[in-house]
Structures are given as structure tokens and as C-alpha cells.
Amino acid sequence: MTKDSYLVPGLFLTPPFRGELEAMFPEKDAAFHHLGRYLFHPSNAVWRAVTSYHRSNLAGASRRVGIQIRVFQKKHPPRQVLEQLLSCVRGERCNTYYTRNSIMRLNICLNIQI
């Protein structure tokens, strides 16, 4: 299942999922407890990987810019989409400065409608 919005509560309302979810989570609140615990309290191995990545790639940065990628038409494989994105970011020099103008050029480069 691919979805780009939060949908856990809706799964309890979907007949095909209801029986299995009720068996796994007799109390609906437990579903959110377990999901939250999994997402917000990762295992030690996962936490080590996250902190190691942060120290290596992000800790020394004076400025961070996040780019969210959503692919609605799956004509191109994910690797090709990533390569196109990185090419545009480098070509428009969005990784060295952040302005409204640079983001507009990035949108045009990626052929994104805003």
C-alpha cells in the first residue's frame, strides 16, 4: 500500500483490515502506542546508525535544507528520480544557498507544478 498521508485511524474503518487489526490490537489505543514506540524509540542499532550519519554528514553544517520528494507518476525508477533531483540541486546551486529564487529554479528544473 502506498499512501502519502497519515492513515492509521482509517485502517480500522476499512473492512478488509478490521479483523486482523482488532486481533493484533484489541485496544485501538495500543496500535498508536506500539507504532509510536517503534518510530520514536528505535533500537540501539538503528539509533547508532542515525547518530553516526548525523555526526558524519550534518553536525558541522551551519545551515540545513530539507527536500521532500513525492513521486505521483511512477514512470521513472526511484534511482532515476533521485539522480534528476541531485542534478538539479547541484546545477541550480541550491546546496550552497537557499532563496525563494533558487527554489523556483529547482521547481522549473524538475518540472514541478506549485
TrEMBL record:
Signal sequence coordinates: none
Protein name: Fucosyltransferase
Membrane topology designation: Single-pass type II membrane protein
Biological source species: Panicum miliaceum (Proso millet)
Family: Belongs to the glycosyltransferase 37 family.
Gene Ontology CC terms, in alphabetical order: Golgi cisterna membrane
Pfam (any one): XG_FTase
UniProt-listed Enzyme Commission number(s): 2.4.1.-
Biological process terms in GO annotation: cell wall biogenesis; cell wall organization; xyloglucan biosynthetic process
Lineage: Eukaryota, Viridiplantae, Streptophyta, Embryophyta, Tracheophyta
